[in-house]
Amino acid sequence: MLNGFRKKACFSISVAKAKPKQRFRKLVRQCQPAFVVSGFDGIFSKMETKMNFCYECDSMDALILIDEQYLDKIDDELLRELDIFIDYYGKSELAYDFPNENWNDVRKRETKELVEFCNSGKMVIFLYYENEKNGEITISDSQKSSRTFINIESGKLILVNASELLQCLSYPDLKMERILELDIEKGVYSIEYEEIKSLKLARRLECNEVNNAIELL
User: Fold this and answer.
1) Which residues pair with 199 in a beta bridge?
2) Cα–Cα distance, 1 to 13 (Å, whole number)
3) Are residues 4 and 85 in contact, defined by beta-carbon separation less than 8 angstroms?
4) pLDDT tens track for 32-45
5) Considering Cα of 136, then 140, then 145, then 148, what sign does the dihedral take?
């Protein structure tokens, strides 16, 4: 069973300079031409890119951040586990597949591969049921340490509803409607967040703990 419905996305973008600290690393964005910054003696201003987005859902859903190349790594088993993961309260038809079992136990047992996939840095899930939420994502070349991180190996970051991803990967003829599609510098990024209204990506410093499957309910 697939949860949720297809949604339209909206976003805007702005770029701001911070105080000079380190050499500039180029960020390339799909939604605005590449920019060039010059400086004195090769020391460039640190750049920060901010984009607004609109997350919408009708019922159980989640916001997913993923490198585009990892979409092909999501098989039928991971799709099944994602469907279970976003059903936090056990209110979908999936619950009938596990009669007389506690749903919390089912979710913990049946989503182990999905959580491992996320915690490897390939995907981040923000479980979130609010009907509509305006959010902002910031990408900077500063360095941070965080339990939540993502590997942007191809340089293409995708934000998409879990329900949309489930439908389109289950039925490849459907075109996936993405909330955001961003070309950024390849690398591993830490993610700091305040619910989903403020997502901040920065170059990752090592952190022993990992939490990439996040329940905000």
Assistant:
1) 137, 193
2) 35
3) no
4) 322 222 222 333 33
5) positive
